[in-house]
TrEMBL record:
Keyword Nucleotide-binding belongs to the record: yes
UniProt xrefs under SUPFAM superfamilies: post-AAA+ oligomerization domain-like
Transmembrane annotation, as ranges: none
PANTHER family: ATPASE WRNIP1, WERNER HELICASE-INTERACTING PROTEIN 1 FAMILY MEMBER
GO CC terms: nucleus
Keyword Nucleotide-binding found: yes
GO molecular function: ATP binding; DNA binding; enzyme activator activity; single-stranded DNA helicase activity
Source species of the chain: Notiomystis cincta
BP GO annotations: DNA synthesis involved in DNA repair; DNA-templated DNA replication
Name recorded for this polypeptide: WRIP1 ATPase
Gene for this chain: Wrnip1
Keywords, alphabetical: ATP-binding, Nucleotide-binding
Record-linked InterPro entries: AAA_ATPase_RarA/MGS1/WRNIP1, DNA_pol3_clamp-load_cplx_C, MgsA_C
Domain MgsA AAA+ ATPase C-terminal: 17-168
Amino acid sequence: GEEHYNCISALHKSMRGSDENASLYWLARMLEGGEDPLYVARRLVRFASEDIGLADPLALTQAVAAYQGCHFIGMPECEVILAQCVVYFARAPKSIEVYRAYGNVKECLRMHTGPLPPVPLHLRNAPTRLMKNLGYGKGYKYNPMYKEPVEQDYLPEELKGRDFFKERET
């Protein structure tokens, strides 16, 4: 019932708040109450990207490994795998930078009126002679061939200068 959602919310918020003690409590309460460990593991995969993100990129690896471990061995043995992951996440630094930036991109797409901007010609793949003749790929600078990063636009002209990470146009 509703307590299912209340407990997962409490677990999520305890990890977000870096409270390892409360995180373990809510995990145990769920597992000892019969919660599917794979449900908890799936929520941990989401938490790894949503709340920890780039502050600790290995968090996602931890979450996927925990999910796979739970899938392989099941309860009750997998409880310690989930406990380790939950404590790791509670102790981990947190960053919502990517989560917020992706939300800004989705909002930009939702608010756009009319057809979406075309992919700039220099970014298009040109596997045929016709496409090459139409200018597909023309002027594209292949970064690995340069010692320094190259100046090149990657967004459509209409979005030039837009920085989704800063939530404003530059």
